[in-house]
């Protein structure tokens, strides 16, 4: 294809959240695997201090690392923030599709999606409301529970002065998990095995978000289900993935996710057909319940009685080694074709659905 026939994709990454480095790794995977015969690829980086850096319009084919992307998007000269944003908005507005490879607050919570809606640029993934709802674990649980979906029991601590009441301690029991309500990649998450450790766990979580959840610990298996929206609007649930933590970590924390090479993913997870279909059905219903679009990963915890939904990620990790691309690769949908599906769906997204999602 010639230069003008290719679809122009702006890959947006970085950001000020604690998941900045994870976002850069996801963007490197996406930019590496986008088919240059079909796409012009432009990296757009948001620095930790919210500066926007615009990369080349047509990044060549190749294998990219986060450091490569940093070199492609050098820090701009000092300007007023409004000038900085105007330059970035102009670049995004010229794209045919934006792929917001942003994790956590500012990127996965509806903030950037709102900007793209104002610019009237198609983008991959869920819209403003669904992104905001899925980013907040408390809101997610309330919406799913309202639709009679099983969720992990929890207590909400809204303000830094709040602590866990005696009634909630008795209801949840020990151990519990303490986590920021609006963060990802297990940042700020602590397992608490005795109540004397609770204050330190709350302090750690509140460094990421003043709004904190205390969840009942479900001792069992961790299973992920990937949901993919096809260009015709239909939804497909992938095979279950089981997370097998084999290092010294007690759960699938940040180190187990990104630093421990002993962590393994079993795809498909060794489950019977009835349970597999149950998990896939729950994942599709959760996707619909939150009003998601394009893609999501629904994470489950299995105890001895029933599967419980733990989280819904509207933009899961996107490195080649991440769960979401690996699930689809196991179905013979390789990374480049997965990206094609997401981009085609974004381009064909009806305007009313975009506004509502």
From TrEMBL:
<feature type="binding site">
    <location>
        <position position="311"/>
    </location>
    <ligand>
        <name>Mg(2+) 2</name>
    </ligand>
</feature>
<feature type="binding site">
    <location>
        <position position="313"/>
    </location>
    <ligand>
        <name>Mg(2+) 2</name>
    </ligand>
</feature>
<feature type="binding site">
    <location>
        <begin position="177"/>
        <end position="179"/>
    </location>
    <ligand>
        <name>ATP</name>
    </ligand>
</feature>
<dbReference type="GO" id="GO:0046872">
    <property type="term" value="F:metal ion binding"/>
</dbReference>
<comment type="function">
    <text>Cell wall formation.</text>
</comment>
<dbReference type="InterPro" id="IPR005905">
    <property type="entry name" value="D_ala_D_ala"/>
</dbReference>
<dbReference type="GO" id="GO:0005524">
    <property type="term" value="F:ATP binding"/>
</dbReference>
<dbReference type="Pfam" id="PF01820">
    <property type="entry name" value="Dala_Dala_lig_N"/>
</dbReference>
<protein>
    <recommendedName>
        <fullName>D-alanine--D-alanine ligase</fullName>
        <ecNumber>6.3.2.4</ecNumber>
    </recommendedName>
</protein>
<feature type="binding site">
    <location>
        <position position="311"/>
    </location>
    <ligand>
        <name>Mg(2+) 1</name>
    </ligand>
</feature>
<feature type="binding site">
    <location>
        <position position="299"/>
    </location>
    <ligand>
        <name>Mg(2+) 1</name>
    </ligand>
</feature>
<keyword id="KW-0464">Manganese</keyword>
<keyword id="KW-0573">Peptidoglycan synthesis</keyword>
<dbReference type="GO" id="GO:0008716">
    <property type="term" value="F:D-alanine-D-alanine ligase activity"/>
</dbReference>
<keyword id="KW-0460">Magnesium</keyword>
<keyword id="KW-0067">ATP-binding</keyword>
<dbReference type="InterPro" id="IPR011761">
    <property type="entry name" value="ATP-grasp"/>
</dbReference>
<feature type="binding site">
    <location>
        <position position="137"/>
    </location>
    <ligand>
        <name>ATP</name>
    </ligand>
</feature>
<keyword id="KW-0547">Nucleotide-binding</keyword>
<feature type="binding site">
    <location>
        <begin position="310"/>
        <end position="311"/>
    </location>
    <ligand>
        <name>ATP</name>
    </ligand>
</feature>
<dbReference type="GO" id="GO:0009252">
    <property type="term" value="P:peptidoglycan biosynthetic process"/>
</dbReference>
<keyword id="KW-0133">Cell shape</keyword>
<dbReference type="InterPro" id="IPR011095">
    <property type="entry name" value="Dala_Dala_lig_C"/>
</dbReference>
<feature type="binding site">
    <location>
        <begin position="185"/>
        <end position="186"/>
    </location>
    <ligand>
        <name>ATP</name>
    </ligand>
</feature>
<keyword id="KW-0479">Metal-binding</keyword>
<comment type="similarity">
    <text>Belongs to the D-alanine--D-alanine ligase family.</text>
</comment>
<dbReference type="InterPro" id="IPR011127">
    <property type="entry name" value="Dala_Dala_lig_N"/>
</dbReference>
<keyword id="KW-0963">Cytoplasm</keyword>
<feature type="domain" description="ATP-grasp">
    <location>
        <begin position="141"/>
        <end position="344"/>
    </location>
</feature>
<feature type="active site">
    <location>
        <position position="19"/>
    </location>
</feature>
<dbReference type="InterPro" id="IPR000291">
    <property type="entry name" value="D-Ala_lig_Van_CS"/>
</dbReference>
<feature type="binding site">
    <location>
        <begin position="215"/>
        <end position="222"/>
    </location>
    <ligand>
        <name>ATP</name>
    </ligand>
</feature>
<dbReference type="GO" id="GO:0008360">
    <property type="term" value="P:regulation of cell shape"/>
</dbReference>
<dbReference type="InterPro" id="IPR016185">
    <property type="entry name" value="PreATP-grasp_dom_sf"/>
</dbReference>
<dbReference type="GO" id="GO:0071555">
    <property type="term" value="P:cell wall organization"/>
</dbReference>
<dbReference type="InterPro" id="IPR013815">
    <property type="entry name" value="ATP_grasp_subdomain_1"/>
</dbReference>
<keyword id="KW-0436">Ligase</keyword>
<feature type="active site">
    <location>
        <position position="185"/>
    </location>
</feature>
<keyword id="KW-0961">Cell wall biogenesis/degradation</keyword>
<dbReference type="Pfam" id="PF07478">
    <property type="entry name" value="Dala_Dala_lig_C"/>
</dbReference>
<dbReference type="GO" id="GO:0005829">
    <property type="term" value="C:cytosol"/>
</dbReference>
<feature type="active site">
    <location>
        <position position="322"/>
    </location>
</feature>
